[in-house]
Every structure is written in C-alpha cells, then in structure tokens.
Amino acid sequence: MSSSAQKPTMLQRALNWIERVGNKLPHPVTLFAILAALVLVLSAVFSAAGLQVESPGEEGETVQVTNLLSASGIEYIFTSMVDNFINFAPLGVVLATMIGIGIAERTGLISVLLRGFILSIPKALITFGLVFAGIMSSVASDAGYVVLPPLGAILFAALGRHPLAGLAAAFAGVSAGFSANLLLSGTDVLLGELTIQAASTIDPAYAEQMNLAMNYYFIFVSTFFLAVIGTLVSQFVVEPRLGEYKGDYRETLTSLTGTEKKGIFWSMGSALLTTILLALLIVPSNAPLRGEGGAVVQSPFMDSLVVVIIIAFFIPGLVYGIVTKNIRNDTDVANQLSDTMASMGMFILLAFTAGQFVAYFEETNLGTFMAVYGADFLQSINLTGIPLILVFVLIVGFINLFIGSASAKWAILAPVFVPIMMQLGYSPELTQMAYRVADSSTNIITPLMTYFAIIIAFAQQYDKNMRIGSLIAVMLPYSVAFLLFWSLLLVVWMLTGIPLGPNGPIEYNG
Description:
Keywords: Membrane, Transmembrane, Transmembrane helix. By secondary structure, the chain is mainly alpha-helical. The protein has one domain (10-496). It contains 22 helices and two strands. A two-stranded antiparallel ribbon has the order 1-2. A hairpin with a 7-residue loop joins strand 1 (52-54) and strand 2 (62-64). Helix 5 (109-120) crosses helix 7 and helix 8 packs antiparallel against helix 11.
C-alpha cells in the first residue's frame, strides 16, 4: 500500500499501524479456519462450565452452549460441512450475479458506460454519486456488495485515481450506509416486525398503532447526510493515504467510438424493453411477483432481486457484445462467462472456510451469549437520556463485529432492549433507529461480515498484497466517521423532537 509523500499525520500513522498489525493475521482463508477451530474449543470449554442464559423473549427458557466437540457435535461437523459451504449466504448470490455482470464486463459494456458517465458529469460529483449509489443499493438487499465496489474501482481507475479508493467509497456506501435510503426496503420490514413484536410485550395497544415506516424520515435525511460524510472521508483521508496508484491495472479514458455508441444505443434499448417486461411482473395489482394483498416490500419480487439483476446486466451486455462483434456465437458467451467464474476461485475457497465458521458460531449459541451479556451490562450501568442511547450504539456496534446479520442480531436484542427503553421513556422507534445506526456503521471493519471476503477478493485484483489489515485500515475512517456523525444526527433529532417517521415519536409515554 503506497502512502503520501508528505509527512504522515497522526491519523495516517495510526492507520498504518492498524494495517501492519492486521496484516500479521493469517490469510483470510486460514483465519476463518482458525476461528472455526476456536469456536469448537470454546464451545467445549463453556459447555463443560455449564454456562447458560435466559433466552431473550422466551421467559423461563434457557439457552446453553452447544458442545461441538461432543459425539453429537463431531457428527454435526462431518455431516454439515458441505451444507455449511453451500448455504454460506453470499456464495450463491455472488456467483449467480456474476453471470450477469460478467457478460456485461467482458463485452466491454460496463467500461464504455463508465467512460461515457465520466465524460458527461462534473468530476467533483463522482465520489458523492458513488457513495450515494452505494447507500441506495440497499433497496436491492445484498446485491450492492457484488455490483458497486468493483464498478467503483473501475470508475476511479478510468479517472486516473486509485481504484481502491473507488472500491472503498462504494463499499462504505453499500455497507456502512445500509440503513439509510430514500425508499423503504426489506430491512425496514425485517427489523420493524421484530420491534413491533418486542413492543407488544410491554404495551400491546401501542404496538398495534406502530408501522413499518417508523424510521423513514430519519433514513431519508441520512441518505444525503452520509453521502456527504463518505465523500469528505474519501477525498481528505482515504485517497491521500492511498497515494498514487502504481499497480498494473489501467482503465483508459478515451472518447467513445462510433461502434461503441451504436452498441450503447442498442444495449440501452434492450435494457428499456427488459425493464418494461419486468415491470409487467410487478406493477399491475395482480402481477405474479406481487406479494399477498398486492404487497411490494414483502413479495416474490423482493425475494428474486438477484435474478432481476442478472437479467438487467446479461441482456444489455449480450446485445452490446453482438453489436460490437465482441460476441459472434454462443461459444464466445460461454468462454466469457467461464473467464468470469475462473476469477472467482479465491472467493469460493474463502466461502468454504467462512461458511464453516459462521455455521459453527450459530450452532453453538455463542452469539446469543454475547448479546445477552451486552444487554445485562447496559442495564447495570443505570444510564439515562442521550448517554444511554450513545452507550447502546457503542455496544451494538461492538456486537456487530461478531454477528453480521442485522435481522438475526435484532431478533436477539429487540426483546431485551425495546422493553428496557420503553420503561425508561424512549420509544421503540428510537431504539430501532439507534440500533440501525450502530449496526450499519461497523459492518465494513469486521472480517466476520459475510461479504468482507468478496471485497478482499475484488481489492486483490488491484493490489495483490491487500490483506485483512490493509482493508480494515482503508475502511476504518469511514466507520468511525459514520458512527460519530450519524450518532450526532440522531442526538440532534432527539433534542428537536422531530418524529423519526410517520407516527414515529422519540418519547414513549405509555
């Protein structure tokens, strides 16, 4: 990793230290294997100690640590290994999405569209637009992790800027800004349902009038707020530290040729036709991809966004390749897709070891123990007001380093914290928003986040020496800035008393 020729600042020295320490960690494939083995050992130790906690949300029920080194545990290890690999959440999403993206990339469509984009807009707005697009990508669930970071790298390379800076800006928007958006998404549904259920244990009448858009006003404003923060961090911290790119990858920025313009015209025409056809599957009230009662947020359409993305990239990419003669027959298509999949070998290997760790961690119930002990600590310190909310944010941010799934973590924490906050006079809506701020902000600095491995794989295309410490050092400024300033925005919101969303008060007066 190169650095600026000027004397490094205190912040840059700290990040360099984090990079050096982090890079002493084993290769990510090895690290996940070691962590999986550590979970096995801890499960045996804690199980032998008889460790148990009360199950969140299930009064009278207890949760114990499952010993994976027992006879039944060893049986589980051997019989589940293939399933743990296959069921690793990003594996199918990434590989399937790359079918569509791969053909668009290999035919040159993505490159030529980025060149056209760069030539047509003010360069000062490109970083903001990239972070903003990353934040908005949460509408498409996890697909943004696969689509935008590599596009951001290509975009910055075409501008003569460090491609890792573009990858980092996109990754920050997609992951650290996951809970901000101009639209409601599946996240609002998943978390909202859990919040309403937790609130009903204290005040069923209050829970009945809650709605899934309870945080909408705040996340709407946060979209622009975080895009600005992410842009400033990129331009004044990340890019100066990365310095000039000295790698082999180059993206030439030249004017579009007549053939390329013709290819764009026909590919965009095919994209428009594809969009219309897809819209017929979702827009009409009786469309086949609508949910029960005509719902859109909870619907087969939202469950099939990966397929939609594959189609949205594949068809225009195919048309562009045919028009520009980059594709002449079906063999060319198969070869280009094969080349794309060949580049995913490291990610597949990472998915195998990471899948074992994630499965073991869940099977042992260690995540539940961490969450419950965190909740007990928050109760024991007897804080109130803004300090309570800020400590809650910090605790959730820390827990998020070990439990990546927002919904799984909230399923554990909501039954504990929502009632606590309500008893202290704070609304479930506020508790949920504080949770979302913390959960999103630290996503980008934990190797245990399910998409961290694919980001490293993308980054290594531009810097073969990129390792865990290097990526954490690049992303840490975003994480700290988002956590700090997003929390301050929430504090300001609390002080002004502005509703967080439709019927989304700050205080609870039940």
